[in-house]
Amino acid sequence: MNFIRNTIAVLIGLGIAGLIITLGIRAFPQWVTFEAFAPFEHWQRFLFSMKDDKAFFGFLLFISGLGTTIGGVATAIIVKYAKVAYAILIGFIMLFIAMLDVIIFPYHPTFYKISIFLTFFPFSWIGGKIVEVIYERNKKKRIAEKMNKTK
Q1: Neighbours of 90 (CB within 10 A)
Q2: Could you give the angle at which helices 110-150 and 83-104 cross, rounded to 10 degrees?
Q3: Global pTM?
């Protein structure tokens, strides 16, 4: 049962991260060069039109970090054990996808190619740690309440 729960948690985390990145790209109308909702359907043409726009790639790094953090939080909330490890798994999968993107499409600037390694793991780790800290605080609070009731 835990395997199914963990698998669903990872899929939900990846879905949330992908949705946040998609919504982030669509946030600025001047960047929208496509008709469909998801920019990934026409990704090569979209990247070619953005290849000289350093602000777009900087924002893409930011929104990818934010999406990975929130995806990591969602995953860590759903899984029962090893919350940080599963959140980091979201970062690893997103990094793998970003590396494939950089390898397949040659339009990314050098700073983006380097920065993806510094974005996905730390932000997903932060997402897992957020949930772990909240759960630990709640656990300590329950223990303290039990201790106070017994006195």
Answers
A1: 33
A2: 170
A3: 0.85
Domain ranges of the chain: 2-150
User: What would the pLDDT profile of 57-102 be if each residue is shown by its tens digit?
Assistant: 999 999 999 999 999 999 999 999 999 999 999 999 999 999 999 9
| Token pair in block for residue 124 | 């997903």
Amino acid at the residue 23:
L
Residue type, 58: G
CB of 57 closer than 8 Å to CB of 100? no
d(CA 150, CA 23): 51
Instruction: Give yes or no for a contact between 68 and 76, defined as CB atoms under 8 angstroms apart.
Output: no
CA dihedral 27, 32, 35, 38 (to 10 degrees): -50
